[in-house]
Amino acid sequence: MNVPKLRFKEFSNDWKDEKLEDVVDFLDDRRKPIKDSDRNNIKGIYPYYGASGIIDYINDYIFDEELLLLGEDGANILSRSTQLVFKATGKYWVNNHAHVLRPKENYNIDFLESCLENINYEPYNTGTAQPKLNQEVCRKINIKTPSLKEQVKIGKTLSLLDKKIELQTKKIEVLKLFKSYTKSEIFKNGNHVCKLGAILNKWNKKNKDGTINYVESISNKAGFIPQSEQFEDRNVASKNLRNYYVIKKGVFGYNPSRLNVGSLALKENDSISVVSPLYECFTTTQNNTYLFEWFNSDYFKKETSSRFEGGVRNTLNFNNLCDIPINLPDIETQNKYAKYFNKLNFKISLEEQKLSKLLKYKKALLQDMFI
Q: Which CATH number covers residue 304?
């Protein structure tokens, strides 16, 4: 039978096989240039969707494009390059980097949004360097639809879940914003200004006997991670690991060429690993957690921005790192703040785990509630 794996018990009819053009109207051709006389009247009023996603408000350079202003009745937006799907409610400006789809009569927009999320677009992609979904191909995408009543119930269920995910996401954003503000206030208050070189010790322990073969890399999001996770498609480690640095708990490491994107980490577990000699490694005489949070603050980013060297890639060697000033409180105060940061990080981690479970739950529903 042409039915999904998971279904509300009051429905039993088969789902219909249809093409996307059977269930939506494409509004792409309604885009038009903005008249010069209208620019000042619309700038800064409505959100805008372009190649990089949604930005808050339209600005001057966007007026060079042909745009479509969606109305209050909503429409689905399907990105031509990333297959991002979302429902526009209210008014949006949309450029030609997205298809704008409005459900026809007897088709529910919430159902359609979830249905589009669940489609594998890879077979429909055109283009080589940049995958695309052109309108002609997009119109012929196969979808399966139930009765309008079942669509509404599925759409409402998933829409409520989306709202829960949105609220959970905002909760995490607020916590991170609170942490960022708190850090900025804490790092203002020190009683001893010194250069980092006064509190850092370069770490030079090498794997000379070659006994350690667990290789890690530094990720700008997850810190020290197995190199197999950082480079899933290839092994970049040397066969001879004797020149690699031995990393144990309490050692910092960073990539001199990727420090500008946050590739700095603190080893916080007991596993012993080795990292490439391309990394800079060090320890500190201060509280590890306090210093690590300082490295992830706006103060540190501001200080490093004027010290980078190089052309294609900005680099910061250990000597230049040591020249950066820091305003430190006494060690007892550092310890107190470190405990606070740990509690806050734990809270954020718990909320991120909740979000992850919600996203997995939604993914499972999309797989089982659609054919």
A: 3.90.220.20
